[in-house]
Structures are given as C-alpha cells and as structure tokens.
Amino acid sequence: MSAGTLYDKVWDLHRVAELPGGSTQLFIGLHLIHEVTSPQAFAALRDLGLSVRHPERTVATVDHIVPTTSQARPFADPLAEEMLATLEANCAEHGITLHGLGSGRQGIVHVIAPELGLTQPGMTVACGDSHTSTHGAFGAIAFGIGTSQVRDVLASQSLAMAKLKVRRIWVDGRLQSGVYAKDLVLHIIRTLGVKGGVGYAYEFAGPAIEALSMEERMTLCNMAIEGGARCGYVNPDQVTFDYLRGRPEAPAGEDWDRAVAWWRSLASDAAAEFDDEARFDAAAIAPTVTWGITPGQGIGVDETVPTPEELDPDERPLAGEAYRYMDLRPGVPIAGTPVDVCFIGSCTNGRLSDLQAAAAVAQGRQVAPGIRAFVVPGSEQVAAAAEAEGLHEVFRSAGFEWRQPGCSMCLAMNPDRLEGRQISASSSNRNFKGRQGSASGRTLLMSPAMVAAAAVAGHVVDVRLLLAEPGATGSCIDSAPAASAAGAGR
Amino acid sequence: MTRHPLPAGPISAHRGRGLPLPGADIDTDRIIPARFLKCITFDHLATGVFADDRSERAGAHPFDREEHQGASVLVVNRNFGCGSSREHAPQALMRWGIRALVGESFAEIFFGNCLALGLPCLTADPDHVAELQEAIAVDPGAELLVDLEAMEVVLESEFAGDNRWPVTLDPGPRRMLLSGHWDGTSQLVARDAELTTTAAALPYLNGFR
Ligand code: SF4
Questions:
Q1: Which of B88, B179, B185 sits opposite A20 (nearest CB)?
Q2: Nearest chain A CA: its distance from B164 CA (Å)
Q3: Each residue of A183-201: pLDDT tens digit?
Q4: A194 and B82 in contact by Cβ < 8 A?
Q5: Do residue B185 and residue A155 have CB atoms under 8 angstroms apart?
Q6: How far is A165 from chain B (nearest CA, A)?
Q7: In the predicted model, is pLDDT for residue A486 greater than 60?
Q8: Could you say which of A37, A82, A122 has the minimum Cβ distance to residue B87?
Q9: C-alpha distances out from residue A365 to A343, A348, A459, A476, Å
Q10: pLDDT band at residue A470, thresholds of 50, 70 and 90?
Q11: Distance from the CA of A289 to the center of ligand 1, in angstroms?
Q12: Is A288-469 in CATH node 3.30.200.20?
C-alpha cells in the first residue's frame, strides 16, 4: 500500500464518494478538451439532457487535425473543418474557453496547459488523450480518458476511478551531455516494458530527476503511458514554482505564497511507502533509439538490433514482427540506418528547449540530400519564443521546413504523413505500425537532437559525435574531420 | 447475419459466435487507424476496424473471413488495446458487432473504455485462451456463452460437445455490469451535493486558503 505519497494526498483531497461498483468518484480539477475526442461527448450530453457542470474548469484547444502549412479557414480538408467547427460551436454553446488558431495561445493541448499556468501541483487533470500523463510533471495526478469519460467530466466534473498502486522510479546520477529526458524515458520503458506500469502510477524521483527542467520533466511524464503507467508524476519543488511564477493562469499576489506553501506540502513524505520501486543510473544511459514497433523496443545508439537469442522468449514473436515490418536485421548496428523523413515536434518534444537542442545540432550544417526534414513547434507561444531567438532561421538555413503549431506527423491526422515504406526519425512518442499516416510507414523514436543529427547525416547517428565537433560549417557531417573533435566539449 | 443490439441495462451473459484474433500487444492504432478518427459521430466506424491489417492480409484477416461474419465474442491474447486512449477502438469493435472480449490481458484505458460501453473484457489463462482460439477455429459456427454469473466461457460445439474455461473480472467492473451501472454518468451526476463539498475544500479553488 502506498501511504504518504503525493498520489495518496491528491487522491484523498479529490475523493467525492465511493460508488456502488467499487470505484471512487473523483473530482477533476482541470479538464482539457480538443477536437477529436470531444464531439461525441457533447452529443451524448445533449442526448441525456445534461449541461456542463463546471464550464470554467474545462479548457479547449485545437491541435490534432490542424494543417501546419496553411492554417487559413476553411481548411482544405472538409472533415477537419467540420471537426473544428463542431468544437467551436460546442464551446460557444456551453461557455467553454477555446484557445483557437491565431489566439497566440493555441497549440498541442499538453503544451499549452502548462505554459498558460493552467496545470498546477495538486490538481487532478483529465483529457481525452493518453498523453495527459504529461501534466504529472507538476505534481498533478493527470491521466488520459475515453470519450464516455469526457462526457462524464462535462456532466459532473468528476470521474469513476479505481485507485492505482504507486511505483517509485528512482534515478541516480546525471544525464550525460547529448543525452536527454527522451533517452531517459525510452531507457526506462525499454527496461520495465510497455506493460510494466499497468496498474501503477509512476513517481519519478532521485537526483537525476530533481536536476531536470520542467520541460524535461514533461517529456518524461508524457511517455509514462508508453510504459503502461496511466499517470506519472514528479514531486513539486523550486523548479516547478519558478516555472509557474508569472504565468497567465498561475496564482498571483498573496495567493502565490499560500499556493507555494500548499504545493510544498504535497510532495511525497520522506517516510512514504511505495508499492514497488525501480532504480536507474542516469549516467549509464546513452542516446536511445527504437528499432521496432513499440516504444519498448529501444536500444542505445551504440548498440545492435537485438537478436532473438538476446530477448526473453515471450518478446520474440513481437520482435520477429518488428524485424519484418521495419526491415531491420537482428545483430546490425542501429547507427547508420538510413532515414527518409525527420520530424521534430509533438507533445513529447515540441517545446522551446527541444527546438533549442535540435537547432544546436542543425546550426551551420545542412540536411542531407533527399531527406525531408521539418520542425513543428508545439504551440503558438513556442513558435513565437523560438522565432524571437532566431531558431526558425537556423532551421531554415540548414534546410529544415519551419511549420505552424499542431500535432502534425505524430499521428498524421492532418496532411503531414509518411508515404509508402518511408522511414522517419521522429521526436514523437509512438512507433506503432501505421502511426505516422502510411500503413507501411516506419518510425524510429529518438530525442529532437538525435533527429536533427539524423537529418544532417542522412542516417541514424550518435548526436554526441556532432556535439563534440567544434562548430560545424561543412555540408555533411561525414565530411567533417572527426579528429578535430578533441577537447571541444559542450 | 445476426445483429446483436447495442448493450443496455444489466449484462449477465452474452451468447454469440467467437472470433479468434491471435497476437500480443495489438494497439488501438491497429484496431482503428487514425484516419478514421476524423468523424464527429461513432456511427460509421465499423468499416475502419483493423482497416490496415485487413488490406495487408487481403481477405485472410479474421475480421474478413466468411466463417466469422456475425461473430460477437472477440478472443485475443496479451495486452490487447494498448496505445492510444481513443474510445473509437471499442466503439469500432462494438459497431462491427463485438459484444464481449476474452483475452490474456487488456490495456487499462481500453478496458475502462469497453466497460463504459457495456462491453465486458474477461481475462483467462494463456493456455485457456489458446485452447479457446483453437476450438473456435475448429468449429467457427459454434455458439459461445460468456457467463458473468458463473465466470466462465462455454463453447457449445456440435462436434466436440461443451467445453468450458474459467474467466476472471475484477469485482468492481463485474458488479457494474451485472447491476447495469456501467453507464456511470447518472451515478456521478446524482452526487452533486458531495461534489460541492469536495470542491469547497480544495485549496486551488478557494484562494489557497
Ligand atoms: S502530439 Fe501526438 S501524442 Fe501528443 S496529443 Fe498530439 S497526437 Fe497525441
């Protein structure tokens, strides 16, 4: 039994009632909606003759279906236009705030709620999207829900939930230069499995976690769900408070000091009991790349695609499917795998620091011939901040396309998609078959810096080699003198 | 082709033919590819079920095979429904005609989404699932009884006689299905007074006092 954890404290505060079915009715502090999973919920609400119980606790944006080249209305795709028009009508009818295109606040739902200060420690956060776990970075209990549950939250501001167990994931040490939160979480999922977290909330803790920025913590919690954990969280600390201070929806004035005092009290107690614990050493983690068709099929960039003999017997059937689908042979190094498309963006890695890390690699280099590379900021605010720093120019002069914000090729519900058997280096979160818009398209997940490195090399490459070079100017990294890297640390 | 009505009220048993779908970690992107999500009602989702897998296997996919048309009990393996939380996945299965699932294990969000639609997801031992899939393959016309009272699945085969396998389901979801309380919205709305009390004690709704 977990006791004295943040999860327990937040759960207890939000408990409304015990339900006959054995689940708990839980108050939802923040409900986020978007165009894909809300229309059916509003329709169901209408059928039941119910209204939205707390419209002020629901916030909407549009992200999944928006084009990233031209966002002029009406959209070229009539279905996409219908979905957005439906969201606009539903929000207007029920008095729900919608951060629409051109508002300066639009973006991927899991990017905008934190940057607006809507996501705060100690809240319960629900959204009809599995990557809602992102918001756990603030010490919130945040989880994805289905459309029926979106209807429930709209109708009652609450959900019927079963309590999870809590596993503490303790990470010692520090990530090396060139190794990012994405690598850390891919490594954790690789180790614990895509199902390892089923039934658990993941508490990420330890020196390596405390050293992460808020944006890195969001990347980490974002992918908790890919490890099977419906929510993942980090205890709130000074890093959290510094991030939130001054954000539009964050507490201000006298409220701020009281808020910080309360937030501090929410962190798991030193004597908290966990249902389980797993330990990692951050310093031992290399840039990590997936080679297969689940996020758990990851390896260090310096490793070889595992052979069946290296895998547990129950992983072998899926590995066999992955070799065939990905057209990768067991025993071959993942570095050197050619790519066709390079995508930087998504709710996992579409924030300012992600674009900065990718731009640092792209700076002074050129996208390799024949590669399509594009950068999709996670929100209008991210786009504006990146442009203020000139990152768009860095990318453009390196041969990347600079796009408008949205989910884009993370799941390809908009025009951005792979074609045929194309293989992508992607900073997104899922490498499932067909995920990026082509039924036979292939995805290699990695950090944004690794995607940028793949774009300039034309194949998977260890980004640490590029970062070690003293300011590239050449057109292709393969032609850069490797020996001159000596002494040029980052 | 038999068409089973959409689930309503208490669900204690379901009777229908089985559809074995072997494979671990079948995710919701495969169950319903993302391009089918561009819709504002669920009514037409049946056509998208396993669309990519089916076109890849050109008629040989279990959902396309003649003998499984009209089947309503899907028999799957480990971690079925992992990945995206899209409720379109159970909705698409339900619109196709599925009314109950039996498998080694189910992804959590998928399980919850099924429950909210009145689709029981029952778990069984891997060996039993394999036997069940095998038995359906041998006699695809046999009726399956999915019994939530007795917690077993019975295959009523003309050739092999009755065969039964135990299944499990957590007591909470089981009670919800048996009592007809799986449509939870009304229960949640009913506790508005308690909800107001809870909200009144939440620091972030009250100036952090
Ligand atoms: S970026 Fe990808 S994972 Fe994130 S909300 Fe959009 S589609 Fe979902």
A1: B179
A2: 26
A3: 999 999 999 999 999 999 9
A4: yes
A5: yes
A6: 13
A7: no
A8: A37
A9: 17, 25, 15, 7
A10: low
A11: 19
A12: no
Ligand 1 site residues, Cβ closer than 6 angstroms: A 63-64, 108, 110, 129, 131, 346-347, 407, 410-411, 428-429
CA of A65 from ligand 1 middle (Å) equals 10
CA of A347 to the centre of ligand 1 (A): 6
Residue A299 has φ and ψ, to the nearest 5°, of: -145, 160
> Taking CB atoms and an 8 Å cutoff, what residues of chain B touch A249?
none
Interface A-B, measured as beta-carbon pairs within 8 A, has a size of 211
Q: Say how far apart CA A409 and CA A430 lie, in whole Å.
A: 11
Tell me the helix, strand and coil percentages in chain A, rounded to 5.
Answer: 40, 20, 45
A184-B104-B162 Cα angle (round to 5): 175
CA gap B34, B25 in Å, rounded: 17
Pair of tokens at residue A326: 């990905």
Taking every pair of C-alpha atoms in chain B, what is the biggest distance, in angstroms? 71
Per residue in A271-301, pLDDT (tens digit) is: 999 999 999 999 999 999 999 999 999 999 9
Contacts A436 to B, Cβ<8 Å: none
Kindly tell me the burial class for residue A270, based on how many C-beta atoms sit within 10 Å of its own C-beta (0-12, 13-18, 19 or more). Answer: exposed
b/e burial code for range A150-179 (CB count within 10 A of at least 16 → b):
bbbbbbbbbbbbeebebbbbbbeeebbebb
In whole angstroms, give the CA distance from residue A291 to residue A301: 10
Question: What is the whole-number distance in angstroms between the Cα of residue A473 and the centre of ligand 1?
Answer: 34
Report the candidate in A93, A42, A32 with the shortest Cα–Cα distance to residue A64. Answer: A32
Token pair listed for B48: 């998208």
Per the CB < 8 A criterion, the answer to whether A202 and A233 are in contact is yes
Contact B204 A146 (CB under 8 A): no
Backbone angles phi, psi at A273, to 5 degrees: -100, 135
What is the best residue among A33, A131, A132, A351 to mutate for testing ligand 1's pocket, by most ligand atoms within 8 Å of CB? A131
DSSP annotation of A102 reads T
Gap between the Cα atoms of A21 and A256, Å rounded: 39
Ranges of CATH 3.30.499.10 domains, chain A: 6-276, 288-469
Contact between A117 and A247 under an 8 Å Cβ cutoff? The reply is yes
With a CB cutoff of 8 Å and minimum separation 6, the contacts of B39 are A79, B45
CATH number, domain A6-276: 3.30.499.10
User: How far is the C-alpha of A204 from the C-alpha of A277, rounded, in Å?
Assistant: 10
Q: What residue has token string 């020996």?
A: A483
Contact by Cβ (8 Å): A472, A466 = yes
Residue nearest atom 6 of ligand 1, based on CA coordinates? A407
What is the ipTM for the molecules in this complex? 0.91
Domains of chain B (ranges plus CATH)?
13-182 (3.20.19.10)
Judge: B181–A147 Cβ closer than 8 Å, yes or no: no
For residue A490, the model assigns a pLDDT of 31
Beta partners for A100? none
What is this structure's pTM?
A: 0.85
Q: Which atom of ligand 1 is nearest to the CA of A430?
A: 3
Both tokens of A340, joined, read: 């066709």
Mean pLDDT of chain A: 94
Rounded to the nearest angstrom, the gap between the alpha carbon of residue A327 and the centroid of all alpha carbons in its chain is 27
Size (chain A), residues: 490
Q: Are B6 and A412 in contact (CB under 8 A)?
A: no
Put simply, the answer to whether B34 touches A412 (Cβ < 8 Å) is: yes
Query: Are the C-beta atoms of residues A95 and A335 closer than 8 Å to each other?
Result: no
